[in-house]
Amino acid sequence: MFKISIIKNAQVTNSCTAPEAEAMAWLARHEGMGTFGQKKETVEKQVLIFPAVIDSEGVEISPAQYEIQQVEVSGYTVEMLDISAQLEQERINSESLKLLAESDWMIVREMEGGVACPQEIKDARAAARASIVR
After folding, report:
1. What's the CA gap between 7 and 30, in Å, rounded?
2. Torsions phi, psi of 54, nearest 5?
3. How far apart are alpha carbons 8 and 37 in whole angstroms?
4. Most confident of the following: 23-27, 52-56, 65-69, 125-129
5. How much is the pLDDT for 32?
6. Distance, CA of 15 to CA of 65 (rounded, Å)
7. In whole angstroms, what is the distance from residue 21 CA to residue 26 CA?
8. By CB distance 3.0 to 4.6 Å, which of 40, 61, 105, 132 could disulfide with 53?
9. Hey, where are the domains in the chain?
10. Has residue 24 got a pLDDT over 80?
11. What is the pTM of this model?
12. What is the pLDDT of residues 35-88, one digit of tens each?
């Protein structure tokens, strides 16, 4: 499974997840259209250096001063991350937490009532705790 993030000016504008084949087909389709992966381009921008000086009667004493500066503007880029391992760990965490929640009553019963919890349940709980990664 892949996470696709669309980035413009260092900000993620959209993201989604898709199986690898679909993600690659989507990327190829958009690369063919020239939609993404555009290189940064330099544009000229007029930047105010000093504002106009105006006297108390509203008469301009000196005009505003501007400077032309070169500014880089980037197009959209695409970042694709393989999140298969992350999703698998989330599945393992979920199953382990479910097992712990479902068997909590046996531990409480043992502590409060003295009825022993089966060793295989204790072993399964220990394995579940060990498999959880946060």
Report:
1. 14
2. -125, 135
3. 10
4. 125-129
5. 67
6. 43
7. 9
8. 61
9. 1-39+74-82, 41-72, 85-131
10. yes
11. 0.58
12. 565 555 667 778 788 888 888 888 888 888 888 877 666 567 788 889 999 999
Residue 5's φ and ψ, nearest 5 degrees, are -120, 130
Q: Residue 15 gets which letter from DSSP?
A: E
Do residues 79 and 16 make contact, with C-beta atoms less than 8 angstroms apart? no
Note the residue count of the chain.
Answer: 134
DSSP 3-37: EEEEEETTEEEEEEEE-HHHHHHHHHHHHHHT-S-
Structure tokens at 53: 């000086």
Strand order in the sheet with 11-18: 11-18, 2-8, 77-82
How crowded is residue 97: how many other Cβ atoms within 10 Å of its Cβ?
A: 13
**Amino acid identity, position 34:** G
